Amino acid sequence: xxxxxxTPRSSLDLMPSIRAIPxxxxxxxxxxxxxxxxxRLQLATIATRLSLGRGTILYREDMPxxxxxIVGQGVVKAFxxxxxxKRRITAFLLPEDIFGLAENGRYVNTAQTVSxxxxxxxxxxxxxxxxxxxxxxEFQLLSKVTHALRESQRHAIVTxxxxxxGRLAMFLSMLETHVxxxxxxxxxxxxMSRTDIANYLGLSLEAVSRASxxxxxxxxxxxxxxxxxxxxxxxxxxxxxxxx
Amino acid sequence: xxxxxxTPRSSLDLMPSIRAIPxxxxxxxxxxxxxxxxxRLQLATIATRLSLGRGTILYREDMPxxxxxIVGQGVVKAFxxxxxxKRRITAFLLPEDIFGLAENGRYVNTAQTVSxxxxxxxxxxxxxxxxxxxxxxEFQLLSKVTHALRESQRHAIVTxxxxxxGRLAMFLSMLETHVxxxxxxxxxxxxMSRTDIANYLGLSLEAVSRASxxxxxxxxxxxxxxxxxxxxxxxxxxxxxxxx
DNA sequence: CGTCATTTTGAGGTATTTCAACGAAGGTGG
DNA sequence: CCACCTTCGTTGAAATACCTCAAAATGACG
Lengths: 244, 244
Known about the structure:
2 copies of one chain form a homodimer.
Chain A: E1 4-5, H1 37-44, E2 47-52, E3 57-59, E4 67-73, E5 76-81, E6 87-93, E7 98-99, E8 102-103, E9 106-107, E10 110-113, E11 117-123, H2 124-133, H3 135-159, H4 164-178, E12 188-189, H5 194-201, H6 205-217, E13 221-223, E14 228-231, H7 234-242
Antiparallel strand pairs in A: 1-2, 2-11, 3-10, 4-7, 4-11, 5-6, 5-10, 8-9, 12-14, 13-14
Helix pairs in contact in A: 2-3, 4-6, 4-7, 5-6
The structure holds a DNA duplex (30 and 30 nucleotides).
């Protein structure tokens, strides 16, 4: 499945900064902030760059932990499939996020690319060795995991809302803040499918579809295709996001 | 409000191990595992021991970060009050958990004691200094925050269930695993109120009450007062916990 | 042993889930 | 470049489960 898998490299330009690092004996998640230049350089020397197509599985739940990953471009989803057949996406990993959360040496989620993605893969062993050699790097990682924890709590609060439209609005608001927007206009890129959004928000696909239509019908947002949207009534949009 | 506030101490016996440490520029949560003996000793020298009654507010959302806390005995809840008036408990902090999650120098949740509690308070500044001096301690903390992240994801999955009885069963199951059980019999201590449980599970108080009654009526559990319960049909209990 | 807070119970309202089927979009191969 | 096929998304209607409101009952505390 890996399309490209180059050997370790040292080009700083190609090694992205890190936003989040859930890892180690347990965990996954999305984190934040940027590593210092020298940390990036250090990690670049032990990272393998990957370019992967949409839908590629990086690892599955319960598989032995072998590597952690850093997102360069694109979006990855981390999810768990429940006995009922339902799927719960625990986090979307965006550029600069680091992921590969594990527990007792096994990944706790399944990771799959949502779009064409550029990734940096680092063997877990080498990663931990780097951490032990560099306390500063470790502190950066700690900050990132902490941030991921905050994000996870936020996620729990969003899914606690009763109204589908409100949950969707909060999700779109989060996209606007966190997803790199290449656009010059004020449109927001929605890289994931409606199904993915439903699995993230804890709603049925139909509920997400209806909520989208509802926001559009009320003139609050406009969709330009399924992966691009624009907020046309910021006031009412914020009111919905906040009103809970 | 603090009932007792002794000066810093160095008694290792009285300084509990740490289970979770969400802290720093952002974050809160519950974590896991135990610090090494010498770490506990080190923290004990800078910690202040507190003995607090039920319902004591330790800090409020948006207040400036001044200290982090470690639970010795008892239970603390971390929550956010939403504009609608609803309250969402993001985590229960149990013995050995460390908490005081903040973001941009301000606590992200409000922390309040659920029962009579013994706490260790450490000034944030001294805490970070200890971390910088001791990379091992920092690594332990990283492990704990990572664990807290896993717990938060688990919480999100629990609240994603549709059925109240199932959510309650998962909650009770979690209590059985994590809450110190002084009892010699197989009964489970439920330190928090039904209202707290409702706020944690994202249900109404009435729904929790009805779910409790439902489990009891079916003979799956038995309640001995509101704060003690016993699982009388382990098979069906596990079936409910797992069936989702 | 009385008061206050918490919990239980009942009845009705509402939003989402389900089930089913149609429609649109994206990808592949001829 | 078009047709076909598969996946994804939209729509409609009924069922379910929780929420809300209101009131009684239970338990905690002093």
